[in-house]
Design goal:
CATH topology of the largest domain: TIM Barrel
Number of helices: 10
Number of strands: 17
Structural class: alpha/beta
Radius of gyration: 23 Å
Helix content: 25-40%
Distance between the termini: 21 Å
Order of helices and strands: HEHEHEHEHEHEEHEHEHEEEHEEEEE
Oligomer: single chain
């Protein structure tokens, strides 16, 4: 939501920078507070990959949030921000031996395959240590209670339980946690709640087969944010109430386990804006055209949305690259009352650099400012800043002075 406060801040910075990302710490802290209030007995996880900006990480982790790392570099980033090693969870498919070895003792490794468990055991043996690990399981259920399906992520549930007797004989790994994750950007709290119920059931079956108690249960599947005008916020209060019921039911079973909640883009997304300028306008065969600075090479998501929906308006989500039609709205920060239909291109030498086609907007002129909300997550990290060797956008972080 573009408040008057934010509009003033963005226009002020737009006088200094042609294009920039703007992260507002006040909004970030509000999101952290809301999530922690909704889940008072759970530990919140932040996926560093959605936005690894140093100032963002420092604010998030100073609030007691745990780290979800998808690379060795992200393990180091969390550690550098003071996150204890047993609160950093390193989960990704295809980890190399180099990454596994360097990560041992720096985090909790989440094994993504049976082979990876065996490799961790061998690497830990070289260091004469016993590595506490979690396992990512691809369950026999889907997000919507259907039969499980093939996935690049995790170990199929049946395959894991079949191999468990062998795994328990490994002398240098100890399975202490469960990780599942089936889908991100979920707004329906009923779906999330039912999914959590299924994960608790899976965790109960796992704990029955282990020699010791689970130390953590990562429920996975991130909480979404409303990108489109016809969407509403996920009702995290209702979700929190339902999860509390599940926690109480399973309290004795998982008395020693941390319950981990994936925050998705709930924390980072709303605090971020992308701002750019119109640098030129023209007429072409009766069409109004505006050229903006640093679009495809500044903020990729609008261009990807246009590319996908121009061929299939009903295309399914391909997160984190594409969500759905209408998911990258923007504001024109001028005061004109005159409206016109316009197509907005970027200033790269490719016709694919287009963010809006024949849309009705306040009439644009060179120097006008465009502001894109929800640019705090999976935005800068996805964008090819090197394309055409142009000056990349600035990245600004506004500290909360309260």
């Amino acid at each position: 939501m573009l408040t008057q406060r934010l509009r003033t801040l963005l226009l002020t910075e737009a006088k200094r920078h042609e294009s920039f990302y703007f992260y507002d710490e006040q909004t970030l802290k509000e999101s952290i507070h809301h999530l922690q209030q909704a889940f008072p007995h759970e530990q919140i996880l932040y996926s560093i990959k959605c936005n690894p900006h140093r100032a963002m990480l420092k604010t998030i982790f100073a609030s007691g949030i745990d780290a979800d790392a998808a690379s060795l570099g992200e393990v180091y980033a969390a550690s550098d921000c003071g996150v204890p090693s047993d609160h950093i969870y390193y989960s990704a498919p295809g980890k190399s031996d180099y990454c596994l070895e360097k990560a041992l003792g720096q985090c909790i490794l989440i094994a993504d395959s049976l082979n990876e468990i065996r490799r961790i055991d061998a690497l830990a043996a070289r260091k004469n240590m016993k590595a506490p690990i979690g396992v990512r399981i691809n369950p026999n259920f889907t997000y919507t209670d259907e039969k499980g399906c093939s996935s690049k992520f995790g170990i199929d549930e049946d395959a894991f339980f079949s191999a468990l007797p062998e795994l328990k004989k490994l002398s240098h790994v100890l399975i202490i946690g469960l990780h599942t994750h089936l889908r991100s950007q979920e707004l329906n709290w009923h779906i999330l709640s039912n999914y959590y119920k299924n994960v608790f059931s899976l965790a109960s079956r796992l704990q029955e087969k282990l020699d010791g108690p689970l130390c953590f249960l990562n429920l996975g599947s991130g909480i979404g944010i409303p990108y489109c005008q016809d969407e509403a916020d996920c009702d995290i209060e209702s979700l929190g109430h339902e999860l509390e019921k599940l926690r109480v039911i399973h309290e004795d079973t998982f008395s020693q386990a941390r319950i981990l909640i994936e925050s998705g883009r709930y924390l980072a997304g709303p605090c971020g804006w992308y701002v750019t300028h119109i640098v030129d306008t023209k007429e072409s065969h009766g069409s109004h055209i505006a050229i903006a600075a640093n679009t495809l090479n500044g903020f990729l998501r609008p261009c990807l949305e246009h590319l996908v929906t121009s061929t299939n308006p009903e295309a399914p989500a391909r997160e984190p690259l594409f969500y759905r039609t209408g998911s990258t709205p923007f504001y024109v920060l001028n005061d004109t009352q005159e409206m016109e239909k316009v197509t907005i291109y970027g200033n790269l030498c490719t016709a694919a650099d287009i963010i809006a086609s024949d849309v009705l907007l306040p009439k644009l002129a060179a120097g006008d400012v465009l502001a894109f909300p929800h640019a705090g997550a999976y935005s800068a990290v996805l964008t090819p800043f090197q394309f055409s060797s142009q000056v990349p956008p600035e990245v600004l972080f506004l500290k909360d002075v309260q």
